[in-house]
Please model this.
Amino acid sequence: MSATLERGINAFKEHLDAPIASFFSSCVHCGLCADACLFYTETGDPQYTPIHKLEPLRRVWEQEYTLWGLFKKAIGLARPLTDKDLEDWVPLLYNSCTLCGRCSMVCPVGNDLVYMIRKAREGMSASGNAPEGVKGAAKRTIEIGSPMGVRLPALKAQAKHVEKDTGLSVPFDQEGVEYLVMMSSMEIMNYPEYLEAIVRIFHQAGKSWTLSSEAFEATNAGIQIGSSDIARDIVSRIVTAAEKLKVKTVISPECGHAYTALRWEGANLIKRPFTFQVQHIIEVLDELREQGLLKTEGMEEEKLTFHDPCQLVRRGGVIQQPRNLMNLVASHFVEMNDSGKMNWCCGAGGGVSANEDADEIKMKAFNRKKEQLEELKVDGLVTACANCRIQLEEGMEEYEMELPVYGLTEMLAEHLVKDK
Amino acid sequence: MSTRKPSSSPAPGSVGEYLRAQGISRRGFLKFCTATASMMALSPAFVPRLVEALEKAPRPSVIWLSFQECTGCTESLTRSHAPTVEGLIFDAISLDYHHTLQAASGEAAELAREEAMKENWGKYVLVVDGSIPLGNPGFSTIAGISNVDMLMDTAKGAAAIVSVGTCAAYGGLPQADPNPTGAVSVQDLIKDKPIINVPGCPPIPVVITGVLAHFLAFGLPELDELNRPKVFYGQNIHDRCYRRPFYERGQFAETFDDEGAKKGWCLYKLGCKGPTTYNACATTKWNQGASFPIESGHGCLGCSEPRFWDGGSFYKALSVPTGDLGQTAGYALAAGGAVGIAAGLLARQKKAQAVKDHETVTVNDLHKGEHS
Model:
């Protein structure tokens, strides 16, 4: 089957719900969402005003579900949506939106704009109007198992390296353990330190955990492309594996949208509650700290700041935990402007990093982060999302800044009290 | 000139002296002045000024011209108030020409007019009742002189012109569609003299005398945009109507013999033009304050407004809601609600259909056109 305009419009109609109807009805056209959006502030181009990105969805709502719209359509005042319209909106709905949700925070009438963008992408993907890069990532996740094409042997090979370096074992498919640890391909390919850190921290804490050979990839390209069907498939794999292994908790890796997919969308996608709980690794680590199971020594002396991943702070409310952990190992920790729930996005979340068409604009968007960092004059930057980390590193290269970027988990692991 | 102390002896040849000679006591004169002042909505402080002004004012020469009219205005003025002080103040003016009232006729009468004009050139007051036919000057003549010629000739030496009655003021009944005589009003013809319109069919008598008194004492009264003295025409009949409370409560007489009519409810629906008519009827009333049309059970015809004959039926209401307002609103609410619910159900159905029509999207369905 192929994607058609009809399927796209049907998807819009299907996903238009009471919240969206009330959001569109209550929009007062104030334009405040524009100033909350990185892509508007860094380009000054009004087409990036978040509510404008939703025009196709709004038109379907008006023409299909409002009396006035039906009337306008009947007398030929309203132009029905065309495939060209949707094509024209690809740069707005995908390239220039990271689903960061900052616009939802500022809307004076409480419209959850990012919720609507997520729903609008359902119609875009069903009509074949998703960017090629994101389509490819979705296809690889379904067919190979990971958006970057990482297969199990690659993870196994990395596990072997970690076992050799630490002298500790990396468990696979252990039933009845407390934690099922998920990975993001970014961590398998670019940041092997993450897995090593997990091994050492859980060993010290004495917690049982495992990886799953059936489901190790936590990232969910179905969420990014905006297809509930594909997202459900990907989430189901993890649910099946977790329930088979009877774990208590599934840990989302340092990846923003993987956390959103599992923690917030997952149970709604499979339409039943999970038998396990979902936590971000940072939440787990802060719990261990509270329980006194995360014993560290020594402090980072350099001036460090923390970049809040949007999905963690705005969608997940995980704000205090990373700060507790930062203060555990960094003596000179400073906050960025707007840190916490109003933090500025790195510019590459929500599928933007997988989308080559967005390469140019995501670098423009990074300018905001660059200015924030220059203002602080820090020696290093810590974050808790591999995707943010890639964008931060690429951005600094582009703007010729020299600033090391660390993952919070690996930084904690480096300060673990050494075994006597 | 001191206005504080009214002089006790009127100036020779003045209105005051004439009234004394006619046996009107000073007390009676003061009563008249007080009544006139209150009628014209002047403050009590103006009474002595009015007294003084009238006592000193020379009796003005008045020339009264009657054109296309029914004599109703003259009847109104003379008959109903003949024995009163107002009637005497009317006598107090030197009415030098009035072809209905004067004994002389023909050339003698016209001679009187010409003499009065010559003697008082530039000072006499010209009172006109009736409209002037322009269709054919022969339609209305007096002593062989057409109305328009007589008016233009007489107006030349007038200090001011008072158009008494709706015909003189606005054209009135003669001008009613199709206006067979080509009737026009005084102000249509004369543009270079002060004109006071005292409309009404006929005007209230005391309004005529009040205007004359004001003119004698203080000069031209303040006029509205239709050149009517504001003191008499400043208020709406409806606003001053004693039946107004029934209007406010929505209690209307539907026919002239129904319960509402018997109970004295508002006559709006029977065509009363009170809401668009400006006159003193509801306050000053007629026949020495006995009553006015609405009090007698008939709606106002709007006779003091221009073109009142051509404003549709006297018995057609100005505007009436199509039905019971509350009921209409109720139906509208119900209809709106029904449309809303129908639209809601339609939307619900549409969404359910869209969910039903959902075809699962797989990674192989993400491309347009032919694709595996």
